[in-house]
């Protein structure tokens, strides 16, 4: 058996990490944190949203924030992680900042999507009212959602 692990971390779109000189890996599943060394028994587990850490044979440390995923250990050497999203960095402090920025961007995108959904719903209701009551359109006033969006900004 080789004295190193081969670590691969992938998302559906990109290979984040592909290193064959890893001495140890630390990850976290629902039961808690665990470590993997060369010659580890085969393993399949679901990762929780956490930071996967590894140390190379040369002593360098790497970090990858994953939003859950599947970790497999095969043949005592191959460690593979498949996740939806991941952010890699050599510094834990820098990684924290990048994760915070990505989270803020995701929250803003979610907020914009909700606003757009409400706007579409309001337009649909107005169209239904116009269709069902063509002569009474002036009497029914649905709030304009764009006014709420501007007030929230």
Give me the secondary-structure topology:
Layout: E1 5-10, E2 15-29, E3 32-36, E4 43-47, E5 50-56, E6 61-66, E7 69-74, E8 78-82, E9 86-89, H1 92-132, H2 145-152
Structure description:
- The chain has 153 residues and is of the alpha+beta class.
- It has 2 domains: 5-90, F0F1 ATP synthase delta/epsilon subunit, N-terminal (ATP Synthase, domain 1); 96-152, no CATH class.
- 32% of the residues lie in helices and 39% in strands.
- Strands 1, 2, 3, 4, 5, 6, 7, 8 and 9 form a 9-stranded mixed beta sheet that branches.
- β2 and β3 (32-36) form a beta hairpin.
- It starts with a strand and ends with a helix.
Give the full name of the CATH homologous superfamily of the largest domain.
Answer: F0F1 ATP synthase delta/epsilon subunit, N-terminal
How many strands? 9
Radius of gyration: 24 Å
What is the terminal separation in angstroms? 59 Å
Shape: elongated
The biggest beta sheet is recorded as: 9 strands, mixed
Portion of residues in helices?
25-40%
In the residues, how many domains can be counted? 2
CATH class of the largest domain: Mainly Beta
> What order do the SSEs take from the amino end to the carboxyl end, as H and E?
EEEEEEEEEHH
CATH topology of the largest domain: ATP Synthase, domain 1
Q: Give the name of the CATH architecture of the largest domain.
A: Sandwich
Query: How many alpha or pi helices?
Result: 2
Tell me the strand percentage band: 35-45%
Quaternary class: single chain
Structural class: alpha+beta
**Arithmetic mean of pLDDT:** 88
């Amino acid at each position: 058996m080789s004295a190193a692990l081969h670590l691969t971390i992938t998302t559906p779109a990109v290979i984040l990490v592909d290193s064959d000189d890893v001495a140890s890996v630390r990850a976290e599943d629902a039961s808690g944190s665990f470590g993997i060394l060369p010659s580890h028994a085969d393993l399949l587990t679901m990762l929780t949203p956490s930071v996967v850490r590894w140390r190379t044979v040369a002593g360098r440390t790497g970090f990858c924030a994953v939003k859950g995923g599947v970790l497999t250990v095969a043949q005592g050497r191959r460690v593979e992680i498949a996740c939806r999203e991941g952010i890699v960095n050599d510094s834990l402090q820098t990684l924290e900042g990048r994760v915070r920025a990505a989270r803020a961007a995701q929250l803003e995108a979610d907020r914009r999507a909700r606003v757009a959904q409400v706007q579409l719903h309001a337009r649909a209701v107005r169209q239904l009212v116009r269709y069902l009551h063509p002569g009474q359109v002036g009497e029914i006033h649905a709030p304009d959602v764009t006014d709420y969006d501007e007030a929230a900004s």
